[in-house]
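Following up on my earlier thread - several people asked me to post the actual chain instead of describing it. Fair enough. Here it is, all 310 residues.
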Amino acid sequence: MSSATTEAGVGGIRRSRRRMLFEDERWLAMALLSPTILLLGLFIAYPFVTGVMLSLSNARVGVPGEFVGFANFARLWNDPIFAKAVGNTFIYTAVTTVFKLALGLWLAVLLNRHFRGKALVRAFILLPFIIPTVLSTFAWKWMFDPTFSVLNWTFRTLGLIDTRINWLGDPDLAMLSVMIVNIWRGVPFYAISLLAGLQTISPDLHEAAAIDGARPWSRFWHITWPLLLPVTMVVVLFSVIQTFADFQLVYVLTAGGPANATHLFATYAYQVAIGTGLLSEGAAISLAMFPVLFLVVIVQLLYIRRVETR
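Reply from S.P.:
Thanks for posting it. Predicted structure:
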């Protein structure tokens, strides 16, 4: 037998083996999932593991540090600024989520009706969400400026105020201002997502209920809301995770001030890690939010499964 014939036979065997491997669903699944696994490992798993290692050391900028266990977390327990950031984060997330859900649902119901220019209005509603966060937040920062604020000018023109309001300089008003901007930016996401859910509900159900004498509010409460609830829970889940870890909006508006009044987990972690160079303490602050988010995700996923299996 010639060498050419032998090589052809070996090549055929190799091609046959490769074909058999790709015909096996387990190997094919691994081949298709490997790029995703690689990306998740590089951009999620590796930073997370690095953060855990930093939080258990006393590393600083330029200093690798040594293992100190849970000393950084114990230090946070007695940190009044961290306690303030925790309270701010929960209040900020709860208040903005409620308003975004209420306003988003109201807009979704309106946009689900038939009227002239509906497509243009739907596209316009998305503008606050698609504009880069930093750019839109800088515009709001100008509107909240105590000297050049268009809000102050409007209120003074209408005779509602006599003196300028320092929106971002007063601790209570600063948190209120941050919440307003977050709600303005988040409502379009709720509206469009809930609108997509509303369009999956058959109009025949509402027509049948109307024939039976059900009023609009009764039809919404007993037909629309139960069918929209699974979509709503998914939207709220993503919104809570994003709002709980919010950074850009708060940092551009107040950077956690005045007097740490608007610090959240993310902004305080950035200030400690980057501002002071204490990487280990900054990592500990960031990881402190992980158990809360993990619990929120588990509870909401269990609730979503329960709703879908009814």
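Residues 230 and 305 are 9 Å apart (CA to CA). That should answer part of your original question.
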